[in-house]
Design brief:
The protein is mostly beta strands. It has helices spanning 2-10, 72-75, 148-151; strands at 20-25, 28-33, 37-42, 56-62, 65-71, 88-93, 98-103, 105-110, 117-118, 132-138, 141-146.
Length: 157
């Protein structure tokens, strides 16, 4: 733990290692590696692009870059909902390309200890939890940590 604190005090990428930005979708907490988070922005005008899956809402202009935006709620097979002032777009770096992920609410940044993390259980033969890297149990809250590369694999080039 002292190594992590030292890195955090120094700042930079090392200080974010092992930290997760948590957010909710339908009252379930999810996490993404903080190292992947570029920005968190409010919902804005999204340009619809025809002939894409329904969970890809379109594209936005983010400081001169075109970024695809995906509604995580729909991608996770949850019912579509109207956006409100709590929804936001998390801009993520997926090894080069950036993608925006619409979530219901951003919660907090957590730093789970190794003992807080476990391998996701196999709950069905089809492996529907293949988007998960781990499950964290922090302060009696379950956090499903997403594997961003697998989650966006079919959506970005």
């Amino acid at each position: 733990m002292s190594e992590i604190l030292t890195d955090q005090e120094a700042g930079g990428v090392d200080g974010m290692q092992g930290q997760y930005l948590t957010f909710s979708i339908c009252d379930v907490l999810y996490g993404v590696e903080l190292l992947r988070v570029i920005d968190i922005i409010m919902i804005q005008s999204i340009t619809h692009v025809p002939h894409l899956p329904n969970y890809i809402k379109g594209i936005i202009n983010l400081r001169g870059s075109v970024v695809p935006v995906i509604d995580a709620r729909i991608k996770l097979n949850q019912e579509e909902a109207e956006y409100d002032d709590k929804n936001c777009i998390i801009i993520l770096d997926i090894n080069g390309p950036h993608v925006g992920m619409i979530v219901d609410r951003v919660a907090e940044v957590v730093s789970p200890e190794p003992d807080d993390l476990s391998i996701p259980p196999k709950v069905e033969a089809s492996g529907r939890n293949h988007y998960l890297t781990s499950v964290a149990n922090i302060d009696n809250k379950i956090i499903l940590n997403l594997d961003c590369e697998k989650f966006f694999l079919d959506d970005i080039a």
